[in-house]
Amino acid sequence: MPSAERIGELLELTEARHGPAAPAVARFEIHYTRFLDPKGSAVCPLPDFAQDRAELVALYRAMVLARRFDAKAVALQRTGRLGTFATALGQEAVPVGVASAMRPEDVLLPSFREHGAQLWRGVSPVELFLYWGGDERGSDFAAAREDFPVCVPVGTHAPHAVGVALAFKLRREKRVAVSVFGDGATSKGDVAEALNVAGVWDLPVVFVINNNRWAISVPVARQTAAGTLAQKGIAAGIESEQVDGNDIIAVREVVARALAKARAGGGPHLIEALTYRLGDHTTADDASRYRAGPEVSAHWAEDPITRLRNYLVGANMWGKADEETLLAEISAAIDRAAEAYLATPPQGPETMFDFTYETLPKGLVEQREAALLTARK
Ligand SMILES: Cc1ncc(C[n+]2csc(CCOP(=O)(O)OP(=O)(O)O)c2C)c(N)n1
Ligand SMILES: [Mg+2]
Predict the structure, then answer these.
(1) pLDDT one-digit tens code per residue, 133-181
(2) Which residue's alpha carbon is at the smallest distance from atom 13 of ligand 1?
(3) 122 CA to middle of ligand 1, Å?
(4) Which of 132, 155, 254, 276 is the most buried (most CB within 10 A)?
(5) Does ligand 1 have an atom closer than 6 angstroms to the CB of 214?
(6) Is the beta carbon of 185 within 6 A of some atom in ligand 1?
(7) Pocket of ligand 1 contains residue 153 by CB under 6 Å
């Protein structure tokens, strides 16, 4: 990707070529926020919420929970007890940071790597296991009733977020729609159209690009020639910025500011969170076929969980005993959830027809009956 310096050079070149008769009529800057460096040292004064140990420990706990959920989901898939699963290994600060900045009445529209956000908002690990196990009941959340389910089609939930935000605006509700999608999704027409209309209608929506640098086997540099993904928001007239997506304090802070702005009627916002996919794309992928090992190892040095733990330990807010207690509590909770999932009797095959249409088209009525007959045999 071209550096900010290179973009400056290009601007100067354009001016030199066209001369003063053709003045530049637009310029833009993308700001990048980071509070903790990869080692966990503060690089500038931390925001107010980060002065509170309980707030930071809650963020730490939620990232550890997301990682533990991930590991269990992979283990279940590998032993034939879960469907294909997309881990968020190394990316936990994005979903947890986003969700921790939201209010319960806001609406989350996640893609398939945001279980950290869903867990924070009250979706249970049992529901998530059910979803990834192919059971539609996993999307019928007991809490977070108005949040959207996991969106596997790449980027199609961005226009849905615009619809949700338009409803909030029409009803004069002080709520914000938050849509999280990947770097690859920014190449989709759905995302470009969503950004465009959100800008024109000045809607209360925050778009978060979870830029983990890869879209399956396609690296960002082959995805777009744009220097940043954030500037795609600028093109739509939306205030846009970058954040260190492995620094949860930074993610929470920039998302909180964007939400406050949108809630106060200040319009949409786009945040590009720079992180890295440490794992395979999904359990159906083998990233070693297209990605060099040293690249991955280098990114382990930016792990968001270690980063926050180092900060907490350095600030005398966390110790070995705290860590052991937390890990034991979280492992037990996830194991219990997995057991509850495995003990849930599966639904009948007819349910795959039952949740899309209010009235089933004739062809599907026949297929539904055939599925039931086969199941009874
Ligand atoms: C509309 C659509 N096209 C293709 C796919 C197959 N697919 C699944 S994930 C993915 C890449 C997504 O990359 P990115 O947006 O960067 O998200 P990430 O997986 O890295 O989180 C593709 C092409 C899909 N799920 N939906
Ligand atoms: Mg990606």
Answers:
(1) 999 899 999 999 999 999 999 999 999 999 999 999 999 999 999 999 9
(2) 215
(3) 25
(4) 254
(5) yes
(6) yes
(7) yes
- Annotated catalytic residues are 277, 281, 290
> Probe ligand 1: pick from 151, 186, 216, 285, max atoms within 8 Å of CB?
216
Nearest atom (ligand 1) to Cα of 113:
21
**Cβ-based neighbour number of residue 272 at 10 Å:** 24
- 33-37 own/partner pairs: CB under 8 Å, 24+ apart: 33/241, 33/242, 33/243, 33/244, 33/250, 33/253, 33/254, 34/243, 34/244, 34/247, 34/250, 35/247, 35/249, 35/250, 35/253, 36/244, 36/247, 36/249, 36/250, 36/307, 36/308, 36/311
Other C-beta atoms lying within 10 Å of the C-beta of residue 192: 16
Q: Please give the Cα distance from 142 to 102 (Å, whole number).
A: 18
Q: What is the pLDDT of residue 14?
A: 65
Inter-residue contact 308 to 63 (CB < 8 Å): yes
Worst-scoring range by mean pLDDT, 16-25, 125-134, 341-350?
16-25
Whole-structure pTM value: 0.94
Atom of ligand 1 nearest to the CA of 211: 16
